[in-house]
């Protein structure tokens, strides 16, 4: 074993599971997160069968209290964390699906796709920094829409597709902002669009035909997670394996600061 630890959220299905199993095969100790305990145990067994090691953590990231409990458990059990992959997410749902809210009353896609990884990452920063050289990979999307700071909860003119796109641009904006904050710590932070319309439950729920495999998506995530070629790159957005450019709002310092301030009002301090 290489002694390195990685936390992968949404690791019991789809691309997250592939990433977790591949990391286990590479000798990482994988902290497998998911909502379903049965599937979580299956992933842990699969990793062990390939000679790796893993532990399952159950949490519903639609609840900020559950996010805090997950972070606290990881903090106490893994003082050093070399990799965090914020992969768990909610898609835009079936056509015509109405506005949904999280356990805390927040718009669901904002809560799961952005607020949860924001809070989890911030709570785990001491562990990441303690590892001396660590990476954060935020799984974003090529589908992005500018945030409306006057209506972060999308209470006017709601669309599941647009809510998803807003949440993913928020995640990329957080990526750029946090990377600048951590520039001197040895922790890199990048975002990636792993692939378009992967063969996942999220995509099938929309009624769309898959156009890519989860293996292709895992390649893109693992490139940022372990490749030595990108070891010193930070604050970037990748379209699959290629450095790319997100919507311009993500690079606007005023937008980053405003988003950070509004987010802390919703999540409370880490």
How would you portray this structure in words?
The chain is α/β, with parallel strands linked by helices and 270 residues long. The chain has one domain (5-267): NAD(P)-binding Rossmann-like Domain (Rossmann fold, 3-Layer(aba) Sandwich). Helix content is 43%, strand content 15%. The chain is built from eight helices and eight strands; from the N terminus they run βαβαβαβαβαβααββα. An eight-stranded mixed sheet has the order 3-2-1-4-5-6-7-8, with helices on both faces. α2 (37-49) links the parallel β2 (29-34) and β3 (53-58). α1 packs parallel to α2 and α3 runs parallel beside α4. The longest helix has 23 residues, at 108-130. The radius of gyration is 17 Å and the shape is globular. The two termini are 32 Å apart. The model has no long low-confidence stretch (mean pLDDT 94).
Which key terms come to mind for this protein?
globular; 8-stranded mixed beta sheet; alpha/beta; Rossmann fold; 43% helix; 15% strand; 8 helices; 270 residues
CATH class: Alpha Beta
Strand order, main sheet: write it out. 3-2-1-4-5-6-7-8
What is the count of structural domains? 1
Largest sheet composition: 8 strands, mixed
Rough shape? globular
Summed over residues and divided by their number, the pLDDT gives a mean of 94
Number of strands: 8
Number of helices: 8
At CATH level 3, the topology is Rossmann fold
Query: Superfamily at the CATH H level?
Result: NAD(P)-binding Rossmann-like Domain
Percentage beta strand: 5-15%
Uncertain runs with pLDDT below 50, 5 residues or more?
A: none
Helix vs. strand class:
alpha/beta
């Amino acid at each position: 074993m290489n002694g390195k630890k990685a936390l992968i959220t949404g690791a019991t299905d789809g691309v997250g599971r592939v990433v977790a199993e591949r990391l286990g095969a590479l000798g990482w100790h994988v902290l497998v997160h998911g909502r379903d305990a049965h599937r979580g145990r299956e992933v842990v067994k699969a990793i062990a069968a390939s000679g790796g090691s893993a532990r399952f953590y159950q949490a519903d990231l639609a609840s900020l209290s559950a996010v805090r409990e997950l972070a606290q458990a990881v903090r106490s059990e893994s003082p050093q964390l070399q990799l965090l992959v914020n992969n768990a997410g909610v898609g835009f749902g079936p056509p015509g699906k109405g506005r949904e809210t999280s356990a805390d009353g927040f718009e669901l896609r904002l809560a799961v796709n952005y607020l949860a990884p924001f809070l989890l990452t911030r709570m785990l920063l001491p562990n990441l920094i303690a590892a001396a050289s660590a990476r954060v990979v935020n799984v974003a999307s090529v589908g992005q829409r500018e945030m409306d700071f006057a209506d972060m909860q999308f209470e006017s003119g709601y669309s599941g597709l647009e809510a998803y796109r807003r949440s993913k641009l928020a995640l990329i904006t957080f990526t750029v902002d946090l990377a600048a904050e951590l520039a001197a710590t040895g922790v890199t932070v990048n975002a990636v669009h792993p692939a378009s319309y992967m063969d996942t439950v999220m995509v099938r729920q929309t009624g769309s035909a898959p156009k890519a495999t989860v293996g292709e998506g895992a390649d893109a995530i693992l490139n940022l997670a372990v490749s030595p070629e990108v070891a010193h790159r930070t604050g970037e957005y990748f379209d699959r394996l290629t450095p790319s450019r997100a919507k311009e709002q993500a690079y606007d310092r005023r937008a980053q600061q405003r988003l950070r301030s509004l987010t802390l009002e919703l999540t409370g301090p880490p």
